[in-house]
């Protein structure tokens, strides 16, 4: 045998052996199995929000060949729902799932990463995070809390809510008792309404008994599950207060930094994939649920008058400016967000808006 042939054969053999080893044990270089805990703010089995977190854990486990396991706890199972931020910040657990506007009391700027009234929609938020400065700014806001944030889902445009009083003018908000949290609630209060903070489980009864006149929740899918169509006269749209609410995963920075690089990447990739899965699912299921609400349950679908939306938008602008005036980081994020919205807004006019105008004729709502 010539020397060259020998080397060729030996080389092929060695490569094949190496390939076999790689196939059989892809993570032999990982020092140890990783076990994490994730605490969410959601009730068990809440479609997309909780099930998205559970799905993420499953994806990471599968991607890592069982080497990286995340055990997911619903709100209250390990820590109270709104205790998740602190638990992950302190390193009691490694991961959390929620929505950034829940942490407004800790960091006012966090609200811009969840939902801004009259702000960016789901496509716009994704563009801001991954095509603009959004994610970088979010990391800056969470850094003092020892947290690494990641966009992990989006509800799409939410619905305006269920009302037992008709909204014909901005004055109809005066004295209106509505369950509407966050920045939307602040805008409603500016319009003269009364914000009632009702836990999810009590909204139906409060609406039925007239304790509240109106409530927003999510969109047709989740609203249908809550049964609001049984106790409210009008179903208003669009959800000006939550035009594309972002769900988040956040990781304890020390735990995240200590992960082997490939596990970090799996976590990031699986989280980004969950974002897409969630938004797609929301769109598909909301369409089907809305159809059922209209045709089967004869829900009275009403659009907010254009003038009312214009006036609410002015109040929203004032609300955001006021928050930004009181917090340096919020001001930085607000300025960046506004600039970005303007930038994509111009493009949106000639792309999505123009296209929707054309296609909407085929799917227009009756009445
Ligand atoms: Ca909502």
Rounded to the nearest angstrom, the radius of gyration is 24 Å
Strand tally is 11
Count of helical regions: 12
Small-molecule components bound: calcium ion
Strand order of the largest sheet: 7-6-8-5-9-11
Amount of beta strand? 5-15%
- Low-pLDDT stretches: 15-21
What is the succession of H and E elements? HEHEHEHHEEEHEHEHEEHHEHH
Quick one: biggest sheet?
6 strands, mixed
What does this structure look like?
There is one protein chain. The chain is an alpha/beta fold. Helices cover 50% and strands 14% of the residues. It is built from twelve helices and eleven strands. The protein has a six-stranded mixed β-sheet, with helices on one face. A five-stranded mixed β-sheet has the order 2-1-3-10-4. Helix 6 (182-190) links the parallel strand 6 and strand 7. The longest helix is centred in the C-terminal third of the chain and has 36 residues, at 328-363. It is globular and about 60 Å long. The termini are far apart. Residues 15-21 have low confidence and may be disordered. The structure holds calcium ion. Residues 158, 216-218, 242 line the site of calcium ion.
């Amino acid at each position: 045998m010539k020397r060259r042939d020998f080397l060729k054969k030996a080389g092929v053999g060695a490569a094949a052996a190496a390939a076999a080893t790689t196939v059989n044990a892809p993570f032999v270089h990982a020092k140890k199995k990783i076990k994490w805990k994730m605490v969410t703010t959601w009730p068990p089995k809440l479609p997309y929000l909780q099930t998205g977190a559970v799905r993420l854990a499953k994806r990471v486990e599968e991607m890592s060949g069982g080497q990286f396991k995340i055990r997911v706890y619903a709100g209250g199972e390990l820590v109270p729902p709104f205790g998740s931020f602190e638990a992950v910040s302190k390193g009691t657990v490694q991961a959390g799932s929620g929505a950034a506007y829940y942490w407004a009391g800790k960091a006012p700027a966090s609200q811009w990463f969840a939902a801004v009234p009259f702000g960016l929609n789901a496509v716009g938020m994704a563009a801001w995070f991954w095509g603009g400065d959004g994610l970088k700014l979010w990391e800056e806001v969470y850094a003092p809390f020892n947290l690494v944030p990641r966009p992990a889902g989006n509800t799409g445009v939410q619905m305006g809510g269920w009302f037992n009083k008709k909204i014909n003018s901005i004055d109809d908000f005066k004295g209106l008792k509505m369950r509407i949290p966050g920045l939307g609630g602040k805008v409603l209060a500016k319009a003269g309404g009364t914000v009632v903070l009702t836990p999810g489980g009590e909204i139906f009864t409060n609406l039925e008994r007239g304790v509240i006149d109106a409530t927003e929740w999510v969109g047709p899918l989740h609203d249908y599950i809550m049964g609001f169509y049984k106790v409210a006269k009008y179903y208003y749209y669009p959800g000006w207060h939550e035009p594309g609410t972002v769900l988040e995963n956040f990781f304890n920075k020390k735990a995240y930094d200590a992960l082997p690089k490939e596990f970090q990447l799996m976590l990031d990739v699986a989280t980004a994939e969950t974002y897409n899965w969630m938004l797609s699912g929301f769109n598909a299921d909301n369409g089907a649920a809305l159809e059922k609400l209209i045709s089967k349950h004869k829900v009275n679908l009403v659009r907010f008058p254009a003038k009312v939306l214009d006036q609410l938008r002015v109040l929203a602008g004032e609300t955001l400016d006021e928050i930004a005036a009181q917090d340096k980081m919020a001001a930085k994020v607000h300025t960046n967000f506004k600039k970005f919205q303007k930038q994509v807004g111009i493009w949106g006019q000639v792309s999505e808006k123009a296209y929707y105008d054309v296609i909407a004729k085929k799917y227009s709502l009756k009445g």
